[in-house]
Amino acid sequence: MSEFIVRSERVVLPNGTRAASVHVRDGRIVGIAPHNYTPAGVRVMDVGELMLLPGLVDTHVHMNDPGRADWEGAEHATRAAAAGGVTTVVDMPLNSIPATTTLAALRAKRTALSGRCHVDVGFWGGVVPGNASDLPALAKAGVLGFKCFLCPSGVDEFASVTEEDLRQALPTLVKLKLPLLAHAELPSALLEPDRSKPRLYRTWLASRPPEAEHDAIRLLITLAEQCRARIHIVHLASADALPALHDARFHGARLTVETCPHYLTFAAEEIPDGATAFKCAPPIRDRDQRERLWEGLVAGDIDLVATDHSPAPVADKHLDDGDFLAAWGGIASLQLGLSVVWTGARARQIPLERVVHWMAKAPAELAGLSNSKGSIAVGADADMIVWDPDVEWIVDPAHLFHRHPVTPYAGMTLHGRVRKTMLRGKVIFDNDEGFADASGRMMGTA
């Protein structure tokens, strides 16, 4: 039997932050006790004034494994996650090959990832044209929900869906009691870019206007209301969509919303031309939108923050020629998410407890994992972070654990850093000593 106490003067618990001792036995939390609790014969890890946070849950990660593991891969993604305090990732059904749209594809992914994950991994299935009959088998094998694109995804093997495709799939998802996650941009509102100016960030921005998001979200609101389905809007970039979402939720629509660290950090006015590390879809919008996304989080109109970690090889980012139209649209931030969001929250006098809710508890709830993940609570897995909220550090891409040293956060000064990460009570990352052997588990069966 493995049993120990983790003690801190600042433990972030579901009901607030206080000095406490967390009692761990066989990988689960069995008690939350006063700070001085020291049962006989039980070892104690005392982290002093460093904070103890629940392990984060990132529900929007592209590991690209198998098939495009050279873009990232399970080892790199889950090491980066552990170093960033993320103890559970939920892998998107694309950009792996095959895409996770059939039971056979899920089995291929599970086989490829076996023994290679440093954190726990769950899976989203995919909704694509014609695969409605595959959804029950994927659900039975343990996928946590299903992702779709309303516009081209960027990879041929994961086709976008129409309203009719969703009307065929959503009744099945309702029966399965699983959410639909939607990339919300409608192709009818996307514009042909000015190909004579590919290095200008505004060229990319103008080709993906906010109306594409708004039109897609209006469609998803209608489907949520008519089909009584759970629908989650991924990576919201346009705060102008929030009033419609707020109204729909107020009237009972089962909608949730996420945004991402990059939308909370950067502004279109500040992105240099040719800086393709910033390219993503929907694009990073202006400073006013950024601040209103923060307001949406504080007000509860945005439920959670996930990274949408979507790396690619250096050549595919077109750093050499700065071509925004040719570059892969994805931002690498899995290791950095907590520090990035805390840096922004701290500057706006938002308490760390809110950040923990947005990045641990709320995503665990989306994925149906809140009984075991996302909080320091009796009965939960002993997934915890020893966190220094005050340290300042400068992002050096060469010192990140992502496969490729490309990130728009390069050179930024961030606040807060993970000192240790524990998965079911085992220290899987120590900032001074490195990583333990891969011990992450995959959720479900296949």
Describe it for me?
It is a single chain. The strands form three sheets. Strands 1, 2, 3, 4, 5, 15, 16, 17 and 18 form a nine-stranded mixed β-sheet that branches. The mean pLDDT is 97. The chain starts with a strand and ends in an 11-residue tail after the last strand. The chain is built from eleven helices and 18 strands. The protein has 446 residues and is α/β, with parallel strands linked by helices. The longest helix is centred in the middle third of the chain and has 18 residues, at 210-227. It has helices at residues 74-83, 103-113, 135-140, 163-176, 201-207, 210-227, 242-250, 261-265, 287-299, 337-347, 352-366; strands at 3-13, 16-25, 28-33, 43-46, 51-54, 56-61, 86-91, 120-123, 125-126, 146-149, 180-183, 231-233, 255-259, 304-305, 384-394, 413-423, 426-430, 434-435. Strand 12, helix 7 (242-250) and strand 13 form a beta-alpha-beta unit.
Task: Write a short abstract of this structure.
The protein is α/β, with parallel strands linked by helices. The chain is built from 11 helices and 18 strands.
Keywords summarizing the entry:
446 residues, alpha/beta, 9-stranded mixed beta sheet, 6-stranded parallel beta sheet, globular
Task: Give the secondary structure arrangement, pairings included.
Layout: E1 3-13, E2 16-25, E3 28-33, E4 43-46, E5 51-54, E6 56-61, H1 74-83, E7 86-91, H2 103-113, E8 120-123, E9 125-126, H3 135-140, E10 146-149, H4 163-176, E11 180-183, H5 201-207, H6 210-227, E12 231-233, H7 242-250, E13 255-259, H8 261-265, H9 287-299, E14 304-305, H10 337-347, H11 352-366, E15 384-394, E16 413-423, E17 426-430, E18 434-435
Parallel strand pairs: 1-4, 1-5, 6-7, 7-8, 9-10, 10-11, 11-12, 12-13, 13-14
Antiparallel strand pairs: 1-2, 2-3, 5-15, 15-16, 16-17, 17-18
